[in-house]
Fold this sequence. Notes:
The structure holds two protein chains of two kinds.
Chain A: H1 2-26, E1 31-35, E2 47-53, E3 56-63, H2 71-75, H3 80-87, H4 95-110, H5 116-144, H6 149-169, E4 178-179, E5 182-183, H7 191-213, H8 217-223, H9 231-236, H10 242-245, H11 253-256, H12 278-302, E6 321-329, E7 332-340, E8 348-352, H13 354-359, H14 362-365, H15 371-381, H16 385-389
Antiparallel strand pairs in A: 1-2, 2-3, 4-5, 6-7, 7-8
Helix pairs in contact in A: 3-4, 4-5, 5-6, 5-7, 5-12, 5-15, 6-7, 7-12, 12-15
Chain B: H1 2-31, E1 35-41, E2 45-50, H2 55-65, E3 70-78, H3 94-100, H4 106-109, E4 129-137, E5 142-150, E6 156-158, H5 167-178, E7 181-183, H6 209-213, H7 231-241
Parallel strand pairs in B: 2-5, 6-7
Antiparallel strand pairs in B: 1-2, 3-4, 4-5
Amino acid sequence: MTAISDRDQLSYIAAQAADARVNVELETEGMTLNIGPQHPATHGTLRIVAKLDGEQVIAADPIMGYMHRGYEKLAEVRTYPQVTTLINRIDWVGSFANEVPFVLAAEKLMEVEAPPRAAWIRTILFEMSRIANISLFLGDMGLQVGAVTPAFFAFRDREHVLNQIEAATGGRFHPNFDRIGGLKDDLPAGWITETKRAMKKMRNFCDEIEGLLQGNEIFEARCRGIGVIPADVGLSYGLSGANIRASGVDWDTRRDNPCGLVHNELDWKVWTHPDGDSFARFWVRLQEVRESTKMVDQLCDGLPSGPVMAKVPRIIKVPAGEAYVETENPLGVMGYYVVSKGDLTPYRVKIRSASFNNISITPWLLKGVYVPDIVTILGSLYFILGDIDR
Amino acid sequence: MSSTETPTEDEVVAEPDEAREALLASIQTELGDAVVGTHLVPGDDLWVRVTRDAWVAAGEYLHTGLGFQYFSFLSAIDWKPSPFGRDMDAQVDVSLAASADPQGETADTDPADADDGMEQGVAGGETRFQVFARVNDIVNGLGVTLKADLPDEDLVIDSWVPVYAGANWHEREAWEMYGISFNGHPGLRHIYLPSDFEGNPLRKDYPLLSRRMKPWPGIVDVEQMPGDDDPADAAETTEAAE
């Protein structure tokens, strides 16, 4: 028995060696693998053309634009209040957070300040859209490595947050609730209690995801040490949000440059991870959801009373000037560079969306990885195509 | 709440002001005459306009000399107002009115005359196209917006890719949307638009076709406020505001 298996083994090795020789002699040509445009890992339609050498990627070229809607051009022919309707659709999973920096930029140019209550409610909804957004990521991250259960958990539990966003704003995905100078409306009665209950459920969800994925042998094997981004490379590509914090950079706009939102009055922590790999990005986001639920709880407790809308003219004309405001959105730093010439419409709006920068590292990052890792790396970078294509 | 917010805001206004002034001074000493315009909003933001030749030098100095390692974005702006008129302020769509009455307003909308209306934003400018980019010093929480003028006849500037790798895609976008070339860019290809697309959509003289086909409905669609009785009021307010 042993003799046969030994012989088998020997012939196997011989065959392998022969194959290797043939490969060297023939120099097999590289293969081009087209991934996408439709792929569950992409949240939209991103196409990646990967040149392969065997199982290894030697060059990857992301091709986007399948969802380009030209918001920068469209914003130039819309009045300031109308622009929020467009920019809701940039990152459609965390829509409310998209409105905030633009409205803050317009307020900065108009020298209007939202009343405290409006700023607090804005921060609540801002954090809730982060929870809704990232909980989808947590589920999807399991899906990328073949675990379907976390995705169902995510879609189930995300509803708790979306229901609350809907109760307050009237829209599950596109609230369009932010106004220059405050908010459209106050919170409905009983909303605070329900929200705190939802936050508790989301903390349970985080525990569940942690129990399902963290420590799971397959998940760890597919994510640990895969797609490592050193901090300096990440910075020069303009990575932001959890992607850069997972590379050990302790930088969060919410803490370091709070503009109009009230994160500085809360007790919370910026989580970082030294590894910079796919797992670190997953882990940092998981902690961020937990942190956000705690923030929402504190915000609900400390909500000041008062009006939710400052005095602003009915026809909004923004004085001439330029302003750049960025906030820490679910996907990373999102900023609007607004140029006004004193008209009803912005003269130019440059939308600095997080995913565009986050995904611009992929040609560098995917070089040398194995084909199955493309999916986990893209999944862990977490982008929404609307946030790339704008 | 408002009482607790006011002092913290004053602090923010007072404190980083010195940091920004020091930053501006060091940029000016390093680059000398290449700095042609600056704009500083205390406690808020800093704009520096440099010459086209000093564009990469400015980037390199900020990146390696001053620790502005974080690349935020790079883009361009077209300062020449749209030859199609200011749709939003007009009660009627200028171009439709012009096509209905060729002798009427065509003179105002002639692209050649539009130079007069060109006024550049903060930190000044002399040309129609400006490239602007923003980088951050994440340790000290400072950001700076750099600008550079590009002459119309030679829309070329040196690429930032060797300094900030992330500039690659942003430069491709600026090339496609404004037709600005970047010297030394590893591959200026279309990024959003199909590869056979002609024109530079974000230039102000590139028509937005849907708007050309159909007048803007916004003027008559002004949302009713509770106090208003009839839509005529809303129209009056619009005129009063102008």
